[in-house]
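Chapter review: from sequence to fold.
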Amino acid sequence: MSRRTRAFVFLGLAVLSAAVAAGVADSYGSRVAGGYGPLRQVVVATKSLEAGSTMGPVDISGGLETRRVPVRFVPAGVLRDPREALGLEPTVALAPGSYLLASQLRARRPRGEAAGALGSSRRPVEIAVSGAEALLATGESGAGTKVDVVVTTEPSSSGPGRTYVAAAAVPLLALGPGADGPAPGGAAAATLALTKRQALRLIAAESFARKLTLLPEG
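The C-alpha cell string follows.
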C-alpha cells in the first residue's frame, strides 16, 4: 500500500470516527434532555443588580434576559418576561446568572414628595388596581403623582354596570406587583394616601366591583 493510499485510508477512518462520536453525543444529549422534561422560559440577570435600584427600560434591556430551563429546576415565583420587572427594585443584590423572583422585587419606596404626601388626615392604604402599565412605562413606580381611582361595577340583572370616579386626585405612594407577583395586564398593588372616607369606599368597592383602575391626573 502506497503512502498516499494509507493517508486517504487514515483520513477516511478519522472522518468516520468523528461522525460516530457526534451521533453518540447527540443521542446521549437527547436522552438527557428527555429525562429532564419540558422547558420553561425564565428571566435571569446578565449583570449585577443593586438592591434598591429601580429598574427602567435600559436596565431591563441591558441587565436581564430570558432562558429556557427544565421545569423541575424552575424556582417558585420566577419571572417569565423581563418587562414584568419594569419600575420595580430588587430587595437584595443579585449576581449575574441569578433567577429573578417576584419575592425579590418591590415597588420603589416612597421618598421625597411621596413620603410627605400623607398629611394629618390621610393614611396609607393598599388596594388591588388595574391599568398600572401606563404609570410604570417610564421605568418609575409612579410614587409622588396624583391619580383618580375609577370603579367599574359588574352588570346586574336590571342593567349594565357603571363606571365612576370613587376617589379623585389622591397621592400615589407606591405601585408594585399584586398578590400573585408581577404579570403584564394583571392586577397591581397600589398604596394610596387616602382619607378615612375614601379608604372605606375603595375597600368596599374591592368586594363588589369588576375592577378598580388608576387614571393619572391631568
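Two observations follow directly from the output. The first helix runs from residue 3 to 36. The chain has four helices and nine strands.
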